[in-house]
């Protein structure tokens, strides 16, 4: 197909159902958008050359989001409520890959996410680095549009 190029992976935004704060949409990296089948092995009597592998259920990886730390973030308030108060409020979120005109190319809709881990990068007076926060989220599944 002439003129077709795969999309670049650096222009995207992340929209959380629990946040209307525009600052909460920017992340420097998103990883963990993967799904795989758990397989069950079945050994057939008299057949010693192989085992049957049957799909059982789908398994989704944990979603990992990284960004420069924000001092006012609805997403971090949501995380801290879960860690501090055990107030787990699942939320949906969307990861939207954009083209050069800021139009959506592909959207991953993540369902019922909850925080699993919040990590702040090391503070070191010898480094001239931005403080990075990492969020690990568990979720039920994602769909692709």
Automatic annotation (TrEMBL):
This is Phage tail protein. It comes from the Bacteria. Coiled coil: none annotated. InterPro entries: CHP02241, Phage_T4_Gp19. GO terms for molecular function: structural molecule activity. Signal peptide: none annotated. NCBIfam families: conserved hypothetical phage tail region protein. Pfam families: Phage_T4_gp19.
């Amino acid at each position: 197909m002439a003129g077709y190029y795969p999309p670049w992976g650096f222009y995207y935004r992340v929209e959380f159902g629990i946040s209307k704060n525009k600052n909460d949409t920017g992340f420097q990296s998103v990883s963990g958008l993967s799904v795989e089948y758990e397989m069950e092995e079945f050994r057939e009597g008299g057949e010693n050359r192989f085992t049957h592998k049957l799909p059982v259920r789908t398994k989704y990886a944990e979603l990992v989001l990284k960004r420069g730390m924000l001092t006012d973030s609805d997403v971090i308030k949501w995380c801290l409520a879960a860690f501090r108060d055990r107030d787990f409020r699942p939320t949906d979120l969307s990861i939207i890959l954009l083209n050069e005109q800021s139009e959506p190319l592909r959207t991953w809709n993540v369902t019922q996410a909850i925080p699993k881990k919040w990590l702040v990068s090391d503070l070191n007076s010898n480094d001239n680095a931005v403080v990075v926060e990492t969020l690990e989220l568990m979720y039920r599944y994602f769909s692709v549009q």
